[in-house]
User: Fold these one by one.
Assistant:
Number 1:
Amino acid sequence: MLPAEGKIEVNGTVGYVSQNSWVISGTIRDNILFGMEFIPEKYQHVLYVCALDKDIEHMSHGDLTLVGEKGLMLSGGQKARITLARSAYRSSDIYLMDDPLSAVDTNVGRHIFDRCIHDYLGDTTRLLVTHQLQYLDKVDRIIIMKEGSIMDIGTYDELVSKGLEFSVWIGMTESESKEEEIEEEDDLVGSEIEKASCFNQG
């Protein structure tokens, strides 16, 4: 998209993780590598930090399992993690992530934030868009937006010290996250894929 006004300068390569996950017809490995060289050690580490390794262990053909047209054989959480893994594998300088944690459950989300976003991508510039405020005390800077406008910018402690509203948002989000759990079949999808006999003949 072209900027409506002003200019944009980018120093380095950019990786983008869309909120609307997408996959191509092919294997899980095809979707992550996306034409890049296969480096086993790096590849396995990306699977781990993106919480995909356990899912793949439950699949008869591992990461050579076919995902089906438009990822038919994958859960929403798996497609989100494959999209993140694809971007993480490319080793970009800047990462723009549009709420990649929204499609996974609480435990998987915490793993991805700690192991991937915080640790694995720790030497890069990361812009994370999220409604899950439980991670805010771990980030360098917070930008609060409302209806397309920036309302405030600061560290977690700076924003909390400014007044009640931010603290109320945090309290509401923490209580909501305990009450609402996204039901992802992350531990059982292997059996579904096996039932559909969707695998790589090669």
Number 2:
Amino acid sequence: MFSTPLGSAALWGYLFALPAVLAGFNSGASNNIAVYWGQNSINKAVGGQQRLATYCANTPVNIIPLAFLNGIKNPTLVNFANAGDNCTTFAGTQLLSCPKIEEDIQTCQSLGKTILLSIGGATYTEGGFSSASEAQTWADTLWAMFGPKQSSSTALRPFGAASVDGFDMDFEATTSNMAPFAARLRSRMDAVSGRKFYLSAAPQCPFPDAAQKEMLEQVAFDFVSVQFYNNYCGATAYPGNFNFDTWDNWARNSAPNKNVKVLLGLPGSPTAAGSGYVSGDQLKQVIQYSRGFPSFGGVMAWDMSQVYGNAGWLDSVVSALGGSLPPVTTTSKNTTPTTTLVTVTRTSAATSTPTGSLVPQWGQCGGIGYTGPTQCQAPYTCQYVSDWWSQCA
């Protein structure tokens, strides 16, 4: 995955409607959809990243990792691209204070979405920790900064009163003592009664992942979003070198948590990554094949701005995870034949009556579940983008 410099942009986005069954990560489901938010990697002045809450109302995306906390020992490196334009700094520091993201996290959580903080990214350069004790100390620090607010803590909190639902590990170069770091966060999260927190990772598809091998061998993750792109084993290699079966074998036989889910990580557009983008029949075939494995938990995509700038792609993902698909039977070197049927019921398209309010450029004017204004300000017209979104353009 990648991070981008901070920048300003005029933004727009899409809203989606799908049943509440997709609200929040579901460890027993195979139709989770995770999309990273925060980097505006499409880097467009128009059609780029909107506020986080935009992607939480009426959306099939149920997991949103915030990308990225680029530094652990230097947590001033909280980088959310153009969203950082709405942040200030704490007095006397360079650490961002982001009240709009605080508000949006709480809004998303009220809608049942799982919001994680992704740590690392392609620009992480600290290399980990000199010892296990140092790793645990920094885990405690991040827990105080981003976990539930502690009355006795004086830690500066970039998201104020909001706390994330867990952490995502996205390290793409070799690090030291990351297992004690992740294990400490795991223990902190598990010690909270009455609320479930999640730990995820985003390894590359070559197995074992060089950067995160230690953590994956020693720490119990709830799910891993394997990056099946930019590598020989990615989705474009299906059926040849595509190795979802290897990750399924790890999940069921070697992972500390034998119920860990494996998400199929994909680029959200042709330009979202260096290589590995799939669409159309190829996308459908890769998802159908992968969901035949017991550990399959859904799809991950990089990143939000690319996904919502690529009309119809997310529709295809939802369709491939939907109930209209036939049962899938797969046979591989690591599994016996299995049959899986995933059921997702779509809502019917709602009609809306034109009102006196006119929708501005890039605003929503139609889509499944939409009941607002349908007439656009001149000279714009309502243009279909996906089943869930039509916009004034």
Number 3:
Amino acid sequence: MTQTTTRFPDGFLWGASTAAHQIEGNNVNSDWWRKEHDPAARIQEPSLDACDSYHRWEQDMDLLARLGFTDYRFSVEWARIEPVPGTFSRAEIAHYRRMVEGAQARGLRPMVTLHHFTVPRWFEDLGGWTADGAVELFARYVEGCAPVIAEGVRHVCTINEPNMIAVMAGAARAGDQGFPPAGLPTPDEETTHAVIAAHRAAVEAVRAINSDIQVGWTIANQVYQALPGADEIAAAYRHPREDVFIEAARGDDWIGVQSYTRTEIGAEGPIPAPPDAERTLTQWEYYPAAVGHALRHTAEVIGPDMPLIVTENGIATDDDTRRVDYYTGALSEVASALEDGLNVHGYLAWSALDNYEWGSYKPTFGLIAVDPVTFERTAKPSAVWLGGLGRSRRLPRVTE
């Protein structure tokens, strides 16, 4: 064993990510708000005030900047910006513009996500992504975001995890019977085509706003690992759930890689993790190496020249020492990818804050704890450690 130090490149994005609905609170015009308050949906708990980051975003950015992070990925909420069809809220657009300028003022480079799982109620009522004219409606919304992103925003994400949008649509069409013990439901093919078309329209709209913006989207990488003799089965399983969305990024300026764990594939398909495997609060297998596999697979599919950005990676745990261990392993994988010549441009942890994880506050992914009553923010030791790496750009590693 030898001790080495990896230096991340100058300009490397070093930050944390959030999503509007998960931290803002009171997104009353969104489809998720309605779902959270529908007994038939059986949501464990509603988002309500969330982290109150709609009002406390300055505190969040102050903390991230003080900790040493240089980048902050956050999303804008379509249901706030366009609460009814064709009516754009000047006040909400100004709010998100203040967030962009606030990030810049603190030395944080803003990465803006235009869609992170939630849509306006009226869009869902029309039929969502597969409705007639949905692509044009999304492009109109993106054009409406011009005052937010036109200046001072280098990276824009059009749609977060489109493959999960298609998977959830597939589950809904199948009667929403829940996820299998391992792996994912079959994505809805019509939704797959729709979100890819919406992405391409959004890319054109963003480039028309400012051709200097680097635009892409982010893919949920499940790290499908074939057991001996199951390579073809794994490839057939992976393609509609992941690879088709990676391939759709050709022509973009970058692609976001998001990973948390792995899925092993055998002769009969996905295999649950063994009973003695360490589990996170989401019941996923503890597997820090996932991000390295995800980066390498994405580069293999999209080609070596496409810039890769880890836009989400992290662990849900109430033991912060395990969070540090997880990030240590994950960052070692990122460093190895860089050393092997992969075109990795950044690493953004999930999540900046303990937040609303789509039905529950129990899975704590955050680098920063949030008191649910007072909303006081407290940086965890993992945040201090990870932010310090952002300052030094140096990662001590033990290699064989």
